[in-house]
Amino acid sequence: MTNKFLRRNEVEKVTGLKRSSIYSKIKEGDFPKPIKLGMRAVAWLEADVMQWIESKVTDSRRI
Fold it and tell me: Sheet containing 35-36: which strands, arranged edge to edge?
């Protein structure tokens, strides 16, 4: 998998989370932190987001 940047709107589409939920989970330590691209621009690594999704699937199937 290539290290592709995902902007917030793409992260929302992939995860099904909205902006406030993403930042709330980051604050709780339950979501990858974004990478600062510029003064007002951030993005997430696709690999980090996909790993987070896979961990949620794995956790839900253990119960």
Answer: 5-6, 42-45, 35-36
Q: Name the nearest CA neighbour of 35 among 43, 23, 27.
A: 43
Which pLDDT tens digit goes with each residue over 23-33?
A: 999 999 999 99
At 34, give phi and psi (nearest 5°): -75, 165
Encoded tokens for 49: 């987001």
CA–CA dist 45, 50 (Å, integer):
9
Per-residue model confidence as pLDDT tens digits over 16-55:
999 999 999 999 999 999 999 999 999 999 999 999 999 9
Domain count, the chain: 1
Chain centroid to CA 27: 12
CATH of the domain at 54: 1.10.238
